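Subject: sequence -> structure tokens, single chain

Hey, anyone have a minute? Need the predicted structure for the following. Not urgent.
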Amino acid sequence: MKRIILLIAVSLIAQTSFGQWSKGKGKGFYKLSAWYLKTDQHYTDTGDIDPNVTRSQFNVNFYTEYGISNKLDLVAYVPFFARATQNNVFSGTTNALIQEGEAVSSIGDIDLGVNYNFFRKGKWSASAKLLLGLPTGEDAGGSDGSYQTGDGEFNQYLSGLIGYSTTLKNTPLYAKAYLGFNNRTQNFSDELRLGLESGINIFNNKVWVIGRIDIVESLQNGSLNAQNNTQGSIFANNVEFIGVGLEASYYITKKLGVSLTYGGAVSGRIIAANPSISGGIFLDIK
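Reply:
Had a minute. Here:
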């Protein structure tokens, strides 16, 4: 999904409800956050790192999981404000202005779906998730059509997740693994996605520290030009990466908290090579 690419790993915003496999009827997790990526280099289609004109992506988004039954959750990710910008370009010798900067603002691509917890026994749990990626963002903005807040395609992402939660000396911790298939339209290549996530709750249940590894592999079965522009677009076709991320979430009260996430690609193809950062405030109704 777009939120996995936007994190460049951390994430289909891998927004997490901190080890809980399903929310439960009438319970929910709600998060308002801002995400920012500033990139002056990108991974090429051969995996090398090349420089590019400095561009940035920014969005303000709302993420939620809401339990409509004890096993079924509704999931939504809504980047209701997204902005793509490029700095002015100056000559390295004369300092003359070569190209004026631009900016495009719009809503981003929305993800809507469900998560079904079909197995739970002891400390183990398994679920299936279906997400629909709506092409609500701008896929061809600016003077050259390369300013994007979305990829312009409708995709369907189906994944399976297995997790284990326990306590170690009264300290809660968990681990999850997922495998998914992303069916993409508009001549984009389909994708395989897999990843690992682990978290530990410290400081008297006040802080969750979470680490993630996410992998996206293109099936190379689309006819769209692999790279829409020379700037390492995060919305290009045949994007691939291995990404790592770290999140810290602090509970101010039993329900209200704040979080900070930092992540980036350690290798990739046709993807920004700089890390991204996000921060937000959440409400966890258990």
